[in-house]
Amino acid sequence: MFDQIKIWMRHLAHTKCAPLTLKFLPVSLLLTAGLAAAQQDFSKVQIKVTKVGGTVYMLEGAGGNIGVSVGEDGVVLVDDQFAPLAPKIREALKGITDKPIKFVLNTHFHGDHTGGNAQFSSEAPIIAQENVRKRLKEGGMVGGTEAKPASKEALPVITFNDRATVHLNGEDIRAIHFPNGHTDGDSVIFFPQSNVVHMGDDFVTYGFPFVDVRSGGSVSGMIAGVEKVLSMTPPDAKIIPGHGPLSTPADVRKFVQMLKETRALVAQAADQGKSAKQMKQDHLLAKYEELGKGFIKTEAWIDLLFAEATRKGGAEAGYQNHGHADEQK
Ligand SMILES: [Zn+2]
Questions:
Q1: CA of 314 to the centre of ligand 1 (A)
Q2: pTM of the model as a whole
Q3: Which residue among 171, 188, 218, 227 has the highest number of C-beta atoms inside a 10 angstrom radius?
């Protein structure tokens, strides 16, 4: 997977149309891929506000979708995109409420979801799973590039292992940790009274998902986590994806079925002694061709599934049951 990103980066570096290509790639994905150096003009970004249901709004700008609970007690933000967008995010909030921000939750540590932390931390404590703080503090490789250790101001000051609940606006806003999915610090945020769920990057709509293996992510963990979320979510709930438009549980189900089916196809072919290269030549995932036209190409997706299928302990090894989120021990 990371090899594929490297190849992709090399390809960009050696292609005359590279600037054009870069221009049309979502900024969040560029950063996820470690191309933070690509100059982005945040001045042109507009924050789109969508009322989702109950107390919850969705803010789209650049980077991960922001979930917002608004009510008489104040504002709870879920993720905060990039630092330069903080003034625009504040402006967008002013259009909804004059109440202050009370808490910020981070779904995971990636910079396109936590970049605004330092801007908001002086007014609202940041809450996140323990591994989010750890990875922000330490820095390290994301995709192909090194992320610098975050400043003190950008670090969550309240951390949890399994779950945390913020009781504001008549809502029990639950952050529940699902281990080893997109990363090892993912939380899905439930707004039960409003019937809304923010999935972080455990559910995205841009095609095959980015699974940050280097940061403890795994496809099997993502599948287990997403299935658990579905079992906890009413069919008429509204789903905020990490990236992409407002979705439904049916969309999430389709996504997890694709994950399972592609995983099974690759595991089966690996059992038959096929190499990843052969699977690519055979167009093993032809049915899902469209999904490979986004950020994660089909070949990279096959490489990732192949690595998981052939890892010692089998495909399930990437997911460890931590007793989280009502899992059966
Ligand atoms: Zn992410």
A1: 25
A2: 0.86
A3: 218
